[in-house]
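wait is this the right file?? whatever heres the structure
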């Protein structure tokens, strides 16, 4: 589970195939702690003053880095996180597991380039392997390397 300050990191964790929840801006520490406890999640935060989860015995990782690459390396070292776990198996928006998409759900231009095609059962977003996937895969590879360096 990520707090709102780590929404960008959450998106990349989802791209890597990890189940990540992001709580809305303005959620109280108590709400965040309760949700993490209810879901059995590790809580990722940049808020050094986040005391409620520690008191409740939750697993909290307070990240010190600002930049995504440094946050990724920190997570890799501290949690053994795999950035290449299951790339492109989750919706980047809501984190739901993707399903196969029907051909009629895919834009015609994307169908012409070939699949596989997926859709999110929660929000209906459709995914296909365009040039953005190559760029994102390269970024995931770089995040994985950053986590094993040094």
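ok assuming it is, sequence goes like this
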């Amino acid at each position: 589970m990520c707090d709102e300050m780590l929404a960008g990191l959450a998106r990349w964790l989802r791209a890597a195939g990890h189940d990540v929840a992001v709580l809305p801006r303005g959620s109280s520490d108590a709400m965040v702690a309760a949700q993490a406890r209810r879901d059995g999640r590790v809580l990722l935060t940049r808020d050094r003053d986040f005391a409620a989860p520690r008191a409740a015995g939750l697993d909290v990782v307070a990240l010190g880095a600002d930049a995504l690459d440094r946050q990724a390396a920190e997570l890799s070292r501290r949690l053994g996180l795999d950035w290449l776990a299951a790339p492109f198996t989750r919706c980047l928006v809501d984190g739901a597991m993707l399903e196969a998409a029907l051909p009629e759900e895919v834009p015609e231009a994307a169908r012409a380039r070939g699949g596989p095609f997926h859709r999110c059962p929660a929000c209906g977003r459709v995914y296909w392997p365009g040039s953005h996937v190559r760029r994102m895969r390269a970024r995931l590879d770089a995040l994985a390397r950053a986590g094993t360096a040094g």
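The mean pLDDT is 86. so i think its the right one actually
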